[in-house]
Amino acid sequence: MNLESSKVTVSKSAEYLFNALLDIKNFEKLMPENIAKFEVIDDNCFMFALSGMPEIKLVKKESHPNSKVVLGAASSKLPFTLTANIGEISENESSVKLDFEGEFNAMMAMMIKGPISKFIETLATNMNKL
């Protein structure tokens, strides 16, 4: 299952956004209002839960300076990645698009497609809070 957020323009440089996304503590600022839990586990890992959803643990998987940050599920039960693709528009403006890729059975995919789509759209929209 592949889902994409809208491309969002942020009044920050690509370098600033990249560094902000590398600091996983900043993901708390991006979370939707219905967040029930957010906990930083270490410099590369955090856990969160939205109301009515199970806890999800995300780990930094890879990064490409000023252009991409990839987070992935810490559990192999629900394998997925969340990629922030950063594009430089100008010295003080950049774009961000989030890509979610996961391998789920048809039933699971049908159940989570709506909430995940809304979740990544919220993360993208909140990029201006960084």
From TrEMBL:
This is SRPBCC family protein. It comes from Paenimyroides tangerinum. The lineage of its organism: Bacteria, Pseudomonadati, Bacteroidota, Flavobacteriia, Flavobacteriales.
